[in-house]
Structure formats: structure tokens, C-alpha cells
Amino acid sequence: MVATSLKAPQPHPQTQTDADALTVLAPLPESGRSVGGGEIVRIAFDSLLANKVRSLLTMLGVIIGVAAVVALLSLGNGASAAITGQIEAIGTNVLTIQAGRQQGGPGSGGGSARTLTYADAKAIAALNLPIIGPAPQYGSSASLVAPAADSSATVTGVTPAYQEVNNLTLSAGSFFGDEQVSGASPVIVLGATLATDLFGSGQAVGQNLRVDSQALRVIGVLNAEGGGGFGSVDDQAFVPITVAQQRLFGARTPDGNDYLVSSIGMSVIDSADINSVQARVEALLRERHELLADGSEDDFSVLNQASFLTTLTTITSLFTLFLGAVAAISLLVGGIGIMNIMLVSVTERTREIGLRKAVGARGQDIMLQFVVEALALSLAGGVVGLALGAVIPLAVTLLGVLDAPVTLSSALIAVGFSLAVGLFFGIYPARRAARLDPIEALRHE
User: Fold this and answer.
1) Residues 344, 374: contact at Cβ < 8 Å?
2) How do residues 410-431 score in pLDDT, each as one tens digit?
3) What is the 3 state secondary structure string of 131-189?
4) Alpha-carbon gap, residue 421 to 332, rounded angstroms
5) Residue 104 pLDDT > 90, yes or no?
6) Which residues on neighbouring strands pair with residue 172, listed in sequence order?
């Protein structure tokens, strides 16, 4: 009997190719669906909250930049509005003729030549132009002595038209009239602050005081007008121009036939006529003073308030933009800080990026995450900076130094610029993270 040995069946040996096919997964298709936007935002914020101190320090540059932009724009706009308001309070349709040729442009003051006379003002009035006035002026600094106090102030001789040209109102008493001017009546009207300095809280109207050596009776007190860039009427006193010329300051012309005036003001009824009125007045004065018609020999100067306001508005607007541009530099510095921190973050999280890409995250998902992180830092910094920047103008406004409200436009500009800076400086680190090779990233130590 032949013995036969039974052997268990042996499995067929596998080739190396089959083994590789069993152990290596097929790569995910590049066209696969990306991670949802909500998930990317959550991951980005988790990363920022995991490094709170570093995130706060990164935002610090943006916070300072936005606060500076908001504060400086608000203060610049407030200062511009205050200056413009003071000019408009005087009137943009006001013409002022000053004795002496203007040197250095508007606001620099006329020359010292004594060239305007009371007869010039009367000649302008005889033209019957569409104006309020003219209102000639002549004055100087003087010492005012009341029974209980004394003060030094500018005492200006004017006519009744001065009140209407300059929109002055009275809190007590009345302004003087034409009869008191023609008769050189010894009366005086005080500015609000000057009245308080001389008479305290008591009634000033009806009281007597001395201006240098002349006794005058107070017949009116002006309402407070507030400070102005060209001097405040609150600190001045006004007398009939004949009193100033004849009794106080000796304004007779060298030939003794007339009296000098320092300036002549007028308000043009229709501001559209201001240039034609100015040209007519200049022609009259050149004729009276026997000057060349081209104006090259003018011994007077005319200040056109509307032209001055336009020039001043341009200057203040440029100044405000300059302040904003200077503040924006700190925002750029803050953006560079965001870029530096994001680059450091990419280096620190290289293995994480490699792992995410290995399990299916696409380059655009990685890039979007880092962009979201940069925008979150800049937006948070912008909001905090906006709050801090609003504190300074608010404090200035509450203290009464300046009315400087934070406008919606300045807030939107500051926060929008901070977002733009964050996006601009966040794209490069995000692109660098998105381009990392997953194999090399996983090997990174």
C-alpha cells in the first residue's frame, strides 16, 4: 500500500505590485469639494485664540494707526469748521478797505500809510451801490477806568452801519445813532467780556467811565460773540467815530480839512455782486487819490472775504489730509507687523499645514484660512482703534476747546483702510502657506 502524504494547499505568492496596491491609497482628486467657509473661519479663529497675547500685540499697530487717523481727521475737520465758521459769521459778502497797500496777502495787515479819509467813505456811500454801509472805522488801544475797576482795550470809532455790517446784537441798552455820530456825543458801547471786567455782574448801561481823559456814558452792552481769529468784539469798546477822531485819538488829516479812517467795511447785499462792487470801489478810490488805473500804485487794499474764505478752506482741507496721511503711516507699520507675525505663524505651523493637505485640504483652503486670520486681526484692531480714537475728539468737545465730532466718513475710512492693509499684507504669507509641499511640510521639524 502506497502511502500518500497530504499537504495543505499553499496560497499563491503576491507580487510586489499587488502589495503596494493594497497599502497605498489613491490620491484625492484635485477637483474635490473644498472645506466649507464656516469651518475655515472657525479654524482661523481657533488659531488666533490659541495665541491671545501674540494676536493682541499684532493688533497693536493697527489699533494705534486707526486711533491716530480717526482722532487727527476729527480734530482737523473740527478746526477747519471752526475757522470757516468764524469767517462766515463775519459774512462772506463783506468787503473791507484798509489804509495802506496790502503786504504779504490776506490776513497779514495793511501798511501804515494814512491814506483813507472820512470823505472817501462818504464818496462810496454816494455811489448808491447795492451794499449795507459803508462803515468807516478808526480806533486804537486805550485805558478804560470805571468806578470799581479799570482795563485796557481797543476802542474803535464806528458809525451805526457797523452794527448791521457785522451782525452785532445787544444784550442791554442800544447802539448809537446818526445824531450821536454827527454831534460827537460822549457815549460808548461795551463788548460782553469788557463790560463784565469793568462792572462785574452789575448793570453797565447808564454807568459812566473814562477813556483816557474823556468821560463817556455806557449806553449798550453787546451779546457775547465768542473768540475770533481776528480779535473778538467781546473785548472791545465802540464809540461814535467822531468821538474817536476828534476827542480821543486826534485823527485830523495833515491839511486839516478832513479826518482819517483806518478801514471802511461794507456788506454786499447779493454776494454775486461782490466782485463788481469791489471793482467799482477800487476805481473810485484810485480816481480820488489820483492813482494809476491798473492798480500798481494803490495806497489802499481791499480784503474780499469770499476769496479769503475759499483760500482758507483749501488750506485747511489740505492740512487735514496731511494729518490723515501722517496717521496712515502708522497703519502701514501695523500691516507690516501683521505680515511678519503671519510669516512666523506659517513657519511654526508647517507640519500642521502638511497634515491638513495630506488629508485632503486644498491650497485655496489653506490660503483662505490665513487670509481670514489677517483680516480678523486688522478688523479687531480697527474696531478697538476706532473706539480709542473717538475718545480724544470727544474729550476735546466736552472740554469746550473745539467742536470735533467723529464723522461717519472718517470712521469708515479708518476701518476700511485697516482692512485693506490687513488683506494686502496677509496675502503673501497665505500664498506661501498654500504652496507648501505636503511631504516636505510633514518632514519639517
Assistant:
1) no
2) 788 777 877 887 778 777 777 7
3) EEEEEEEEEEEEEEECCCCEEEEEEEEECCHHHHHCCCCEEEECCCCHHHHHCCCCEEE
4) 7
5) no
6) 221
Contacts of 206 (CB under 8 A, 6+ apart): 217, 218, 219
CA-angle at 235, arms to 229 and 241, nearest 5°: 100
Say which amino acid occupies 319. Answer: F
CB 418 within 8 A of CB 331: yes
Residues 249 and 124 sit within 8 Å (Cβ to Cβ): no
Helix 408-434 crosses helix 363-398 at what angle (to 10 degrees)?
160
Cβ pair 48, 376 in contact under 8 A: yes
Of 421, 403, 405, 423, the C-alpha closest to 413 is 421
Q: How far apart are CA 104 and CA 265, in angstroms?
A: 20
DSSP 253-294: -TTSSSBB-SEEEEEESSGGGHHHHHHHHHHHHHHHTT--TT
Q: Is the peptide bond before 136 cis (omega within 30 degrees of 0)?
A: no
List pLDDT tens digits, range 136-170: 999 889 999 888 888 888 999 999 999 988 888 89
